[in-house]
Amino acid sequence: MNTQPRIYVAGHNGLVGSAIVRVLRAQGHTNIVTRSHAELELTDQAQVRAFFRNERIDQVYLAAAKVGGIHANNTYPADFIYDNMMVQANVVHEAWRNGVNKLLFLGSSCIYPRLARQPIKEEYLMSGMLEPTNEPYAMAKIAGIKLCESYNRQYGTDYRSVMPTNLYGPGDNYHPENSHVIPALMRRFHEAKLAGAPEVVIWGSGKPMREFLYVDDMAEASVYVMNLDHATYASYTDPMHSHINVGTGEDVTIADLARLVGETVGYRGRIAFDPTKPDGTPRKLLDVSKLKSLGWQARTPLPEGLRRAYAAFVDLVADQEKRAAA
């Protein structure tokens, strides 16, 4: 009989979920349950209820989410708030109904006010106005945190939340319009290099500052936080601010990031910026002192993470081309 906990990773095909599966397997876990979107529609309460009733899950990593960059958030605000709120409500509620005591919810640093003091501490949540370009997504993620806190307060569950900074790495979304900044830059510079384009134009002024975390570091932090004993976790949080920031504690301007991605890809042309396009939040640097005090910190420097991410992107493109030619 397998005595390991039965762990459900929701969103295992996504950037974060796939990394969590990699980390769990590397740590020797074999009793991992996954379902593709085609196999289980998490916005459908009846399907989620049947899944938890049949699978006898012990732990849940809730990494399933609808995500995207500024363009996607501006274009599909209803999809971002509806899909994410439904997924969270269904998974958390049905986990509780079926006796799952341990759950880890993965949020996003965009939950914090647009003009929050820097670096951003966990207690700054809901202390100011959100960034308008991704407010629906941020509201859904805030609801997810409060959902976990509410079930803990009412039912005594151990549902925890981690708030990662901007993530990147293998398994990322490289869609030309709906992706986040690093995969979008990587694809644009790669295509510009192949085409011999003399210039790449980047949205915005290049002045905003962002923090970036390699996704396997995020996955390690998630498993680490999940496995902390309850007393230790509770001593660093409180019932109304139970989430923990996950990041590197360092940030970079978008202009410097663009140059670094260009160098990683091997693009030799000019880099220009279009200040008529939105910048988004001026700065988002997380205060990660709480997580460091709990014994974990990121270990992958940005240049090394970008090299790994680009290698994964090149492999993905080669595989897609191979399939198209078959």
Automatic annotation (TrEMBL):
The record marks S108, C110 as: Important for catalytic activity. Belongs to the NAD(P)-dependent epimerase/dehydratase family. Fucose synthase subfamily. The keyword Isomerase applies. Keywords: Isomerase, Multifunctional enzyme, NADP, Oxidoreductase. Residues 7-228 form the NAD-dependent epimerase/dehydratase domain. It is an enzyme of class 1 (oxidoreductase). Catalyzes the two-step NADP-dependent conversion of GDP-4-dehydro-6-deoxy-D-mannose to GDP-fucose, involving an epimerase and a reductase reaction. SUPFAM superfamilies: NAD(P)-binding Rossmann-fold domains. Pfam families: Epimerase. This is GDP-L-fucose synthase. NADP(+) binds at residues 11-17, 106-109, 141, 164-167, 180. GO terms for molecular function: GDP-L-fucose synthase activity; isomerase activity; NADP+ binding. The active site is at Y137. Substrate binds at R188, W203, R210, D279. Pathway: Nucleotide-sugar biosynthesis; GDP-L-fucose biosynthesis via de novo pathway; GDP-L-fucose from GDP-alpha-D-mannose: step 2/2. Its EC number is 1.1.1.271. It comes from Massilia cellulosiltytica. The keyword Plastid does not apply. GO terms for biological process: 'de novo' GDP-L-fucose biosynthetic process. It catalyses: GDP-beta-L-fucose + NADP(+) = GDP-4-dehydro-alpha-D-rhamnose + NADPH + H(+).
